[in-house]
Amino acid sequence: MNNTIKYYTDITEYVKMFEVFDKDFCNETIDVIKDLNWDKHSYYDVNNNSNYTYDDDLYIMSENVYPRLIIEERLWPTIRAYIEYFNHPWNDTWQGYTSPRFNKYPTGSNMKIHCDHIHSIFPGTPKGVPILTCLGQLNTEGVDFEGGELYICNEKLVIPPGNVVVFPSNFLFPHEVRTVTSGTRYSFVSWVY
What is the model's pTM? Predict the structure, then answer.
């Protein structure tokens, strides 16, 4: 391992995009998941040990459908590429990553600004939080849906379908999906721990 560590003073340098899936796979995935049972997203309040939701929240789904297995398989080299890019000696301490969760944003829905300090994805005690977020886009902004822009650190990021954005899950990387004004936005997310 190279002992020289490169320090980035602009935290947006830690937001990296990878082309992982082709458009056909994305379309096929949407066809498989669009009519399944979706649950309203909720936020966990660690201080009150409770969940809450908003009327305009997105919908989520974690059913074990076959595109999910392909996504899991292809996330592994994507995560490796992200970690190797930075070549930090502490990057090899991660233990795994979650199965992808699908996100559905119908017209009028969004995801409020937040960071991914998600205690609920780890069973048992003590609970931890993820170290990386892997967010994949399945359809095209401006074609399949309007609005629904992703902002990370208050910077708009356009993700072409089939691309995965990887970034740290900590409090330095607040992110949101703005309100979808027409159509339906589909994506998925996995967290590295």
Answer: 0.91
16-39 pLDDT, tens digit per residue, is 999 999 999 999 999 999 999 999
Domain that holds residue 151: 16-34+59-88+95-192
Q: 118-129 pLDDT, tens per residue?
A: 777 766 665 668
- Tokens at residue 22, please? 């082709």
Name beta bridge partners: 60.
Answer: 39, 103
Identify the H or E element spanning 167.
Answer: strand 163-168
- 124 lies in a domain? yes
Establish if 8 belongs to a structural domain: no
- Angstrom distances, CA of residue 140 to CA of 61, 100, 117, 137, 160: 20, 19, 28, 8, 6
Is 2 domain-assigned? no
- Given a contact cutoff of 8 angstroms between Cβ atoms, the answer to whether 161 and 26 are in contact is yes
pLDDT at 29: 98
The separation between the first and the last C-alpha atoms of the chain, rounded to the nearest angstrom, is 22
